[in-house]
Design goal:
The complex is a heterodimer of chains A (about 200) and B (about 475).
Chain A lengths: L1 H13 L11 E5 L3 H8 L5 E6 L5 E2 L1 H4 L8 E6 L2 H14 L4 E5 L6 H14 L2 E5 L11 E7 L11 E8 L5 E8 L4 E4 L7 H5 L3
Parallel strand pairs in A: 1-6, 1-7, 2-4, 2-5, 5-6
Antiparallel strand pairs in A: 7-8, 8-9, 9-10
Chain B lengths: L5 H9 L6 E7 L2 E7 L1 H5 L8 H7 L4 E4 L2 H15 L6 E3 L5 E3 L11 H14 L12 H10 L18 H9 L5 H6 L2 H8 L1 H11 L16 E10 L2 H21 L2 E12 L4 E12 L2 H13 L7 E13 L14 H15 L4 E6 L9 E5 L18 E8 L9 E4 L2 E14 L15 E8 L4 E6 L6 E6 L2
Helix pairs in contact in B: 6-10, 9-10, 11-12, 12-13
Classes of the chains: A alpha/beta (about 200), B alpha+beta (about 475).
Enzyme class (chain B): transferase
InterPro entries (chain B): DNA/RNA_pol_sf, DNA_pol_Y-fam_little_finger, Rev_trsase/Diguanyl_cyclase, SulA_CellDiv_inhibitor, UmuC
Subunit structure (chain B): Monomer.
């Protein structure tokens, strides 16, 4: 938790400088709030969401409405991860859609990760892999952990803790953020009284 | 050309049956005979007879339900075939064709030879045919229906004038039995009694009033083939040949203001084997420069064997695509690029696996949106949620809990949670007009539950069938 406090200082200084995600790169996120992280990261424009058909959980467009217009969301249902990666590469390279979300089920090897990076660079698009915990790829530009945090102040809160645990081009850090629905932007919550260590302590 | 047994002949051509045969059609809640063959007619059956009566008369009658739509298509095929005699061919009712052979008969060695040729060909095809030839369309109809080999129109009964049954009966009561009688009668009283229809039909048959034949417009055929003197096998060569096929095809699509939605490229190899590459496009298009790269993936998988010596490109599904005005002002990101991307992805995972959400009018969480293939739908707005809804929905997962208030502590997916705040309940009742097994348990009281651990979950309680379930996770 000492690490957390120090990074809060960083957060104060640069106000979530790692976000929005760097364009032309592929990033990774895991954790219980990874879907919300992806929705916020893609809130600026059209999104292609690549998932595998057998996965049970269904995205709920009405829930997404808080973050982005569900009409901007395209889904691709694939049979396996190979197909997912192939069409992700195609979509990243094409650049018709600025943001591509890929739900992966196993670790990308270096070759796969690198190909996605090159495709994103060629198309000037941003990719985001929703990975299972502990299955990050070495080729990822950044890796984030996103988890919801209990907010005693508001009952419609989207308070989350975003922690950047890998960053190829910058420092790591952690932020408590909230999505402002009206202004459609991420709001970094001041740490006073809402320090993650504070709220996370089970009582 | 009149095909008195078009429907039954069509079925019998495909499956010959000896003995009486009839097609039945349900009319006014009764199965009635729609069309029947000669053997059945000889046994005293007739059209519009009820099927039960027919079976009583003739126990070994074989019957089958009629398909008027297929009959109509069959007649269309016959119409196309009939253009071998003359270019001017139109439909005459539901079971006839009318040909304007003026200036075409001599090509077949005179009218008589031509009619014999038609009879011979149709007999070989197994169709009953009645031909009538006359100076006017009305006369030809009369001869075909009443006296195939006749020459004197005046001798035919008045029914040959294409009149309704009531008028025919009334005329017969007046003693006007033949067309000759009718044309000799004074016109004014006839017009007063029967209206203009009778005299119009009479004049049309006698040629005093013209009657046009409207030939069907031949639907454009979007197919084009290319043969090579020497077989080709290199990928670049095949792509170049495809480009050469695409250009004229797209010109044709442009001329008819249509766009291809599905293209099939058939490659025939020297060993007579053929392979097909089907390209399904996300939007109708007719720009060869855009279509060609989309073929690359499909053509890459083709096995050329000893070489390909014939290629055929056909637009199998075609949609209207009107020419659009393009402004000088820059349009915001054209959808073309996105459609091309959808097509390219679709060749790999199937076009219907690229989907988008459409709003639906329902309070049931699972049914408050639709998922439609992106290529066959347009984005719709109108998303609204009066209450917060979770980002992810899953099949309800039971948790332990009793009573209508959310449990203070619960375990879900092997994780322990402590309740920090619960918002609710929001009661949703099942849609009784739809059968849904998931909603058998009755009413649901939904609660948004914030846990101390951070997770915000969507729980529901079923008061009619007590139990607690988790159905979704919020941001």
């Amino acid at each position: 938790m000492t690490c957390d406090r120090r990074s809060f200082g960083v957060m104060q200084a640069d106000r979530l400088s790692q976000f929005p995600l760097r364009c032309g790169r592929v990033h990774e996120v895991y954790g219980p709030a990874s879907v919300a992280f992806a929705a916020i990261a893609g809130a600026k424009g059209a999104v292609l969401w690549i998932g595998q058909a057998w996965q049970g959980a269904q995205l709920n467009p009405i829930g997404f409405e808080t973050f982005l217009d569900p009409a901007q969301l395209l889904l691709a249902r694939t049979q396996n991860q190979t197909d997912s990666l192939a069409i992700a590469e195609e979509a990243l390279k094409d650049g018709a859609l600025p943001f591509v979300v890929i739900e992966t089920t196993r670790t990308l090897d270096l070759r796969e990760g690198r190909r996605l990076q090159l495709a994103a660079k060629a198309g000037g698009t941003t990719g985001l892999c929703l990975i299972p915990e502990g299955m990050g790829s070495n080729a990822a530009e950044t890796r984030w952990h996103a988890a919801p945090v209990f907010d005693p102040a508001r009952d419609d809160s989207t308070l989350m803790r975003w922690e950047i645990i890998k960053n190829k081009a910058g420092t790591i850090g952690a932020w408590n953020v909230r999505w402002e629905r009206e202004t459609r932007r991420v709001h970094v919550v001041s740490p006073a009284g809402e320090r993650p260590g504070f709220t996370r302590t089970p009582d | 050309m009149w095909f008195p047994r078009l429907a039954s002949d069509r079925v019998l051509r495909a499956r010959p049956i000896e003995g009486p045969f009839a097609l039945t059609l349900k009319q006014q809640n009764t199965d009635r005979i729609y069309c029947l063959n000669m053997a059945a007619e000889r046994l005293g059956l007739h059209r519009a007879m009820s099927c039960a009566d027919a079976r009583a008369f003739c126990p070994d009658l074989i019957s089958q339900p009629a398909r008027p739509d297929l009959d109509q298509r069959f007649l269309g095929a016959l119409r196309r075939w009939a253009t071998r005699y003359c270019p001017w061919v139109g439909y005459e009712g539901a079971d006839g064709l009318v040909l304007d052979v003026t200036g075409a008969a001599h090509l077949f060695g005179g009218a008589g030879t031509m009619l014999r040729d038609m009879r011979a060909r149709m007999a070989r095809a197994g169709l009953t045919l009645r031909l009538g030839m006359g100076a006017t369309r009305g006369a030809a109809w009369a001869f075909a229906h009443f006296d195939e080999h006749g020459t004197d129109l005046n001798a035919l009964p008045v029914a040959a004038l294409r009149l309704d049954a009531g008028t025919v009966t009334a005329l017969q009561r007046l003693g006007l039995r033949s067309i000759g009688d009718l044309s000799a009668a004074a016109r004014a009283p006839l017009a007063r009694r029967f209206g203009p229809e009778l005299l119009l039909r009479l004049d049309q048959a006698l040629g005093q009033v013209g009657e046009a034949i409207s030939p069907e417009v031949e639907p454009p055929h979007y197919g084009i083939a290319l043969s090579f003197p020497d077989p080709i096998g290199l990928f670049e060569d095949v792509m170049a040949a495809t480009a050469r096929l695409l250009d004229p095809l797209c010109d044709k699509l442009k001329a008819y203001e249509t766009g291809a939605r599905e293209l099939t490229l058939t490659l025939r190899r020297v060993d007579q084997g053929s392979q097909q590459v089907t390209l399904r496009l996300a939007a109708a298009m007719r720009d060869p420069a855009r279509i060609l790269p989309l073929f690359a993936r499909g053509l890459g998988e083709v096995d050329a064997g000893f070489g390909i010596d014939r290629m055929r490109l056909e637009a199998t599904v075609v949609e209207r695509l009107p020419v659009q005005q393009t402004g000088a002002m820059a349009t915001p990101a054209s959808p073309d690029r996105l459609n091309d991307l959808i097509t390219r992805i679709g060749t790999r995972i199937g076009l219907e696996n690229i989907q988008r959400f459409l709003p639906a009018d329902s309070h049931i969480p699972e049914r408050s949106f639709l998922i439609a293939p992106a290529a066959y739908s347009t984005p719709e707005s109108g998303w609204s949620s009066p209450r917060p809804r979770p980002l992810r929905l899953f099949a309800p997962e039971p948790i332990t809990g009793t009573g209508p208030q959310p449990p203070k502590q619960f375990r879900w997916r092997r994780m322990a949670f402590t309740l920090a705040r619960a918002t609710g309940p929001e009661r949703i009742t099942p849609e009784w007009w739809l059968e849904d097994d998931a909603w058998r348990s009755g009413l649901r009281d939904y609660w948004k539950v914030d846990t101390r651990e951070g997770r915000r979950l969507w729980l529901f309680y079923t008061p009619q069938n007590p139990g607690w379930f988790v159905q979704g996770a919020f941001a």
